[in-house]
Design brief:
Blueprint lengths: L5 H27 L6 H25 L6 H20 L5
């Protein structure tokens, strides 16, 4: 695919990480709001799911490290699409 600078890879990830940092606290609060009596359990379940998804993504990216940046880029894109699909699947239509 040609030569790609490190800045072309790092800057989109920085922007993505900034967006995740802005949205994650609201996502956590939204996930815990329906379950105030067991917020600790809901919080630990959400943390476990995040860690599990990160571990699976890390294994995939680690196996594809010889292929360049595309496994990382593809994993980030797939996680973003999965988040979008899961969020929209949980919305109630009126």
């Amino acid at each position: 695919m040609g030569s790609v600078s490190a800045l072309a890879i790092v800057m989109p990830i920085v922007i993505y990480g900034f967006a995740v940092g802005l949205t994650m606290p609201q996502a956590m609060a939204g996930a815990l709001t329906p379950f105030p009596e067991m917020a600790g359990t809901a919080s630990s379940l959400l943390g476990f799911l995040q860690a599990m998804a990160g571990a699976i993504a890390g294994i995939y990216v680690g196996h594809g490290v010889d292929a360049g940046a595309m496994p990382m880029v593809g994993t980030i894109a797939a996680m973003g699409v999965a988040s979008f699909v899961i969020t929209n699947a949980g919305r109630r239509t009126v």
